[in-house]
Amino acid sequence: MAPAPLNLPVVVTENSVRVHPVVLFTITDAFIRRNDGQERVIGTLLGTVSDGVVEVKNCYAVPHSESNDQVALDVQHHQTMAALQQRVSSRERIVGWFSTGDPDSSRSRDALIHSFYGQECPNPVHLALDTSGQGGRMGVRAFVSRALAIGGRELAREFLEVDCEVRAGEAERVGTDLLTSEVADKLPGDMEGLADSFERLQHSLQQAQEYVDAVVAGKQKGNTAVGRHLADAVAAVPHFTKADFEKMLADQQNDCTLVLFLSKLIQAHLALADKLGTMQLPLL
Prior knowledge:
Layout: E1 6-7, E2 16-19, H1 21-32, E3 42-50, E4 53-62, E5 64-67, E6 70-73, H2 75-88, E7 93-100, H3 107-118, E8 125-129, E9 140-150, E10 153-166, H4 170-180, H5 190-216, H6 224-236, H7 242-276, E11 279-280
């Protein structure tokens, strides 16, 4: 009986990975929001492939659970998000998956996840993000894999590290520079921005009143263009009685409260659906 043929590892076509900053922000946000007791987060990478270069432009987290050498992925959530992303940006497709933490400590489970994404796209890449913060930096590494099989049966999978760089466009560079500068600490919140807007409005009204009083008193020569703009601004203000204004304000507050309640309810239903839709991946 002839021995089974030995299939040597195939040549990897992807030789470098380019990551956009928004991908790192999304992964970091998912890691911060992870469930209690969850060591790492994983998810799907979206982008394009050209001349052996994988450009990762977007990503989304996929709920999962893992223990020992077993991994459970929420396949339904992954498929739903992939379909929505395809509708938003048809040029971006699945190019691999990401994980946080040290990839060398979970290679057996990573092989299972990598095999799953091998069914979603050819030659998937694995992006590993170090969230430990050692050295004050966040390390990014990229891997591809090749399989060793005998008789059509895969026996092992080897992960090879490839070149990985973070590349930002002009608009992304402006955003990252703003976030890394001291100005980011001074960005106002919603309430601070609203208070600042009211303060500027009050200052403008005070200037307009002083101008009108000076013109009426004959201390300053009036400007026809300025007077026309002031008249248009006054005419544009709706006239409400105090009771009508208070009723309108109360209705607006009730509407905002109702929208907030509905959003929390939908969020709870989605979390429950994620738990019920989790599917177990088979071991190799």
